[in-house]
């Protein structure tokens, strides 16, 4: 595969460093910076579900809801039992005013993991 200007000198080790740096940027409330770092990681390793989940979280934090939805959906295609991804996708739908889709994924999250936050959001009693 030919190298692009963004991948010249990039190694698997560099991608790990970028991933860890993206985690720190997201924690420091710089989601756009995290996305920028993760773009090259995912370009080199599109199968890396952890990087996609982190990028989805960064998109969500940056209020880029459509890209967040897409990334969370890709994660769930690969890991349908990922309770956090269901919960995060539900929150994404909720912020897009799509309550029925949100409710479905809140309930899937709660069914997969009885985390109190997931159970509360699922609102099984309503």
In short:
TPR repeats lie at residues 83-116. The protein is an all-alpha fold.
How would you describe this structure to a colleague?
This protein is an all-alpha fold. It folds into two domains: 1-64; 80-126, no CATH class. It contains seven helices and no strands. The chain has helices at residues 12-27, 31-44, 49-61, 65-78, 83-95, 99-112, 116-122. It is elongated, with a radius of gyration of 16 Å.
Topology record:
Blueprint lengths: L11 H16 L3 H14 L4 H13 L3 H14 L4 H13 L3 H14 L3 H7 L4
Helix pairs in contact: 1-2, 1-3, 2-3, 3-4, 4-5, 5-6, 6-7
How many domains in all? 2
| Average pLDDT | 93
In whole angstroms, the N-to-C terminal distance is 53 Å
Query: What portion of residues is helical?
Result: over 70%
Instruction: Report the uncertain regions.
Output: 1-6
Q: How much strand content do the residues show? A: under 5%
Q: What is the helix/strand order? A: HHHHHHH
Structural class: mainly alpha
Largest sheet: none
Computed over alpha carbons, the radius of gyration is 16 Å
Number of helices: 7
| Number of DSSP-assigned strands | 0
Shape field:
elongated
TPR repeats: 83-116
Organism: Streptomyces graminofaciens
Protein name: Tetratricopeptide repeat protein
Keywords: Repeat, TPR repeat
């Amino acid at each position: 595969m030919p190298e692009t200007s963004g991948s010249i000198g990039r190694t698997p080790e560099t991608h790990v460093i970028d991933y860890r740096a993206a985690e720190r940027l997201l924690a420091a409330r710089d989601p756009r910076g995290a996305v920028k770092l993760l773009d090259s990681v995912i370009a080199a390793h599109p199968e890396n579900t952890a990087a996609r989940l982190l990028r989805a979280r960064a998109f969500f934090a940056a209020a880029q809801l459509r890209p967040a939805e897409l990334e969370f959906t890709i994660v769930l295609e690969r890991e349908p039992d990922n309770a956090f991804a269901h919960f995060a996708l539900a929150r994404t739908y909720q912020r897009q005013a799509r309550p029925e889709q949100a409710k479905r994924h809140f309930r899937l999250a709660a069914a997969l993991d009885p985390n109190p936050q997931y159970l509360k959001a699922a609102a099984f009693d309503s």
